[in-house]
Amino acid sequence: MSELSVNHLLGIKYINEADIDLIFKTADHFKEVINRPIKKVPSLRDITIANLFFENSTRTKLSFELAEKRLSADVINFSAAASSVKKGETLIDTVNNILSMKVDMVVMRHPNPGAGVFLSKHIDASIVNAGDGAHEHPTQALLDSYSIRERLGDVAGKKVVIVGDILHSRVALSNIYALKLQGAQVKVCGPKTLLPKYIESLGVTVELDIKKALAWCDVANMLRVQNERMDISYFPTTREYTQQFGVNKQLLDSLDKEIVIMHPGPINRGVEITSDVADSEHAIILDQVQNGVAIRMAVIYLLASKIKQ
Ligand code: CP
After folding, report:
1. Cα(107)–Cα(65) distance, rounded to whole angstroms?
2. Does 228 contact ligand 1 (Cβ within 6 A)?
C-alpha cells in the first residue's frame, strides 16, 4: 500500500494496521533525513498548513511546526488565547476565515472531544487531530508505538501497561487502539475511579496493583494525572496516589527483569514517576519526543499526497 486509507487523521479508531505500517515506513525515511546535516526536504513547497491550538501544548505544537518546516510547507500558527475566539467567534467561523487564506491542511488541538470530526464535515482542508479533549491524540499513539518498535524490535506480542488517569486521557484511548491493531497485549492500571467502566470492552485487562502490573509488562506508559479535567476528587491525596500508583527506582529494581518506561509528557515529577526513573536508562521519554517529529512529517506528507492528487 502506498497511500493512507483516510483523507484526515482524526483518530487511530479511523485507520487500520496497513496505515500504521505505511506511516512507520515513511517515518523511518524522515528520521534518516532529520539526522542529516541538511535536515530539510522540498516535498511540501506548495502546501500551506495552519496549526490551530485552542488548548495549551509544548511538545505537540513545536513538533508539528518543526515537521512542517522540515518538509518546506508554509506554516501559520494560531493560538486561541491570543485570538478573536476570546471575542466570541465560533470554531467554524474561525477556521473558515483561516481557510479563505488558501490553507490546505489544518492541525488542530481542541478541548472538545470530536472537534476534528465536526470540522472535517464542514470544511475542505485535510484535518489532523493534535488532541481533542479526553478523546484521541493519534500522533502521540503513533510515536509511542514507533518508539516501542525502535527499542524492542516490534510491537506485536509485547505487553504494555498504561498506568494512571485513563478516564481523562486521550493518550490512553489512542494508544489502546494503536497497540491492539498491532497485536500487543494491553493492561490498564490506576485507581478504580480513574478507569472508565467500558474499558474492558476495548480488549484490555485491568490490574489494580502496580507491582503486579509492572511484573507482567515489557513496557509501562505512565500517564499524567489530568487535574485540569477533574471537577471532583478522584483519589484522597496526591501523596496516596503516588504511594499506590507511582513508579520509583526502588520499585523498578525489585523486578526480576528490565522494563521500558514511557511518558507522553508533561511529567509531574515525583507524582507518577520519580526523577531517578524519568532520567534513567529505562526511560525512552526523550526518544518519544524525537520520534514525534519523524512521525508527524510522515503523517503530513502522506495526507498532503492525497490533496495533491
Ligand atoms: N504529549 C503532549 O501532547 O504534550 P503537549 O501537551 O505538551 O503537547
Report:
1. 10
2. no
Ligand 1 center to residue 266 CA distance, Å?
6
* C-alpha of residue 1 to centroid of ligand 1, in Å: 30
Q: What is the pLDDT of residues 44-54, one digit of tens each?
A: 999 999 999 99
Please indicate whether residue 292, judged by its CB atom, sits closer than 6 Å to ligand 1: no
DSSP letters, 201-255, are GGT-EE---HHHHHHH-SEEEEPPP-GGG-SS-SSS-HHHHHHHH-B-HHHHHTS
pTM > 0.85: yes or no: yes
* Ligand 1 proximity of 174 Cβ (cutoff 6 Å): no
- Residues whose CB falls within 8 Å of the CB of residue 80, separated by 6 or more in sequence, listed in order: 52, 53, 54, 55, 86
User: Which residues neighbour 41 within 8 Å (Cβ) at sequence distance 6 or greater?
Assistant: 33, 70, 71, 72
Task: Name the pLDDT band for 91 (thresholds 50, 70, 90).
Answer: confident
Ligand 1 atom nearest residue 63's Cα: 8
Does any ligand 1 atom lie closer than 6 A to the CB of residue 131? Answer: yes
Query: What domains does the chain contain, in order, with CATH numbers?
Result: 12-136+289-308 (3.40.50.1370), 138-285 (3.40.50.1370)
Per-residue pLDDT tens over the stretch 217-227? 999 999 988 77
Q: How far is CA 152 from CA 159, 179, 278, in A?
A: 11, 14, 18
